[in-house]
């Protein structure tokens, strides 16, 4: 049994010790915001924080994560209010969205260490691949997130958190039978 803290809660995984952290998070903990990209550590889609450092969860086993503090995209901000998330939306640095959770995790770890990174520092610190090619907007969004985090700038609205339960459950009126007309 492997124990760690995931998103502030103690977790024990009843999995083989050599199970990649990625699969423990996705399959056992149902934290599917951490994405599987390449499985080889090249793309960064699976990035999580391990003791505050951005690491590729496909390359770390649950045995290596034993006793450590893990933060996933779900633990960073459930309501998408984190400055990196807000700035990426404001700068239109999200296209298909597949790489977004990993980029957000990498960028937030960078900003925790360096609140005002230069363009060169951002490019050196963000190894994530984005097939949509949002890199120029990504640099601007990370710099903007740094300003937002330091309260030097305000983004007027957080992105919508998704479909509310009431909207998802509303009734759809029945269609009339054309033969009745």
UniProtKB/TrEMBL annotation:
User: Pfam families given for it?
Assistant: Fer2 (PF00111), Fer2_2 (PF01799)
Keyword Oxidoreductase listed: yes
Q: Which CDD domains match?
A: fer2
What are the 2Fe-2S ferredoxin-type domain coordinates in residue numbering?
Answer: 1-76
Q: Which UniProt keywords apply?
A: 2Fe-2S, Iron, Iron-sulfur, Metal-binding, Oxidoreductase
Identify this protein by name.
(2Fe-2S)-binding protein
Organism, by scientific name, is Qipengyuania citrea
């Amino acid at each position: 049994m492997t124990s760690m803290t995931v998103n502030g809660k103690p977790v024990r995984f009843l999995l083989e010790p050599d199970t990649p952290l990625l699969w423990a998070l996705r399959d056992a903990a149902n934290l599917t915001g951490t994405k599987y990209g390449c499985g080889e550590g090249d793309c960064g889609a699976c990035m999580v924080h391990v003791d505050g450092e951005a690491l590729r969860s496909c390359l770390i086993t649950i045995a290596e994560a034993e006793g450590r503090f893990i933060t996933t995209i779900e633990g960073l901000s459930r309501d998408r209010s984190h400055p990196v998330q807000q700035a990426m939306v404001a700068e239109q640095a999200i296209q298909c969205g597949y790489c977004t959770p990993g980029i957000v995790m990498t960028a937030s770890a960078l900003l925790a260490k360096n609140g005002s990174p230069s363009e060169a520092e951002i490019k050196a610190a963000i190894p994530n691949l984005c097939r949509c090619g949002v890199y120029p907007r990504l640099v601007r969004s990370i710099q903007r997130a740094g300003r937002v985090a330091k309260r030097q700038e305000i983004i007027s609205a957080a992105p919508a958190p998704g479909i509310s339960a009431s909207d998802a459950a509303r009734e759809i009126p029945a269609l009339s039978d054309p033969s009745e007309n």
